[in-house]
Amino acid sequence: MITRANRYAGVLASPDAESMRPILSSWPESKSTCYRFCGTILSNWHPAPMEEGWVTFGFCACPDEFSESELGVIYRTLLERCTFNEFWHAYDEYSLIALFDRHGLKDARLRIPNLEVVLNGSPRASVWYLKQFVVDETESVAPRLSVCADYGFDKCNSPSLVEDLKRIYKQLLLEAHVDPVKLHEVCIAGNLFRFASGFMKFKKAEKKRSARLMKNPYPLTNFELEVMRGWDGNLRVVIVSRRSLFSFYILTNSSIGVFRQ
Description:
This protein is mainly alpha-helical. It contains 16 helices and three strands.
């Protein structure tokens, strides 16, 4: 994998992890991320759900594992047609879609629903990290702050409640095949439980508990939306006081969450 990545990136160094470490540490984070990703793709693999690249390179948009494999092939074809510098600069500038199109892969990438939404999105909607959390079977992915705030995991005070809520979203995304973009729209409208009730039946006790857990701070007021405009991908916490309302805006790892009291 390292040898393939070195050849593609034009690194004139001994192809071993030890010699690559100081080189990678001297690069921008986005460049070293792309170096590792290219090594994976050129070895006929693609990122798994527990890896950050599963989201940032758009595999979270794939509806199933077959589609993920197809996207891996599309990326491999792209790497055969563009230079490493072209690739990592496009990744860094959120212009991978334009790079696909420029190298004759528009029809291929259009077969992956919502790929453009993910790759052009900064910050990315928290639904993609929700999907990563529920799809991962290794239990190595923890829900991000934004996922906790948006989808109710911040109210789970026990592992069993986390699993109950996780099961609901897993059923929506993987069994009912709900479009993640639609789920995101429902989330920011504050209608998660009502929406979920259209796809599954809740027992009486479960209904009350799930409704409480899935209640979130949305929809946001115009004032709150204005506060959140123009943020970059760095961690920030903004506290806004309006009369009796306290809002905590958290933007972490390119994903937004809101807490209110």
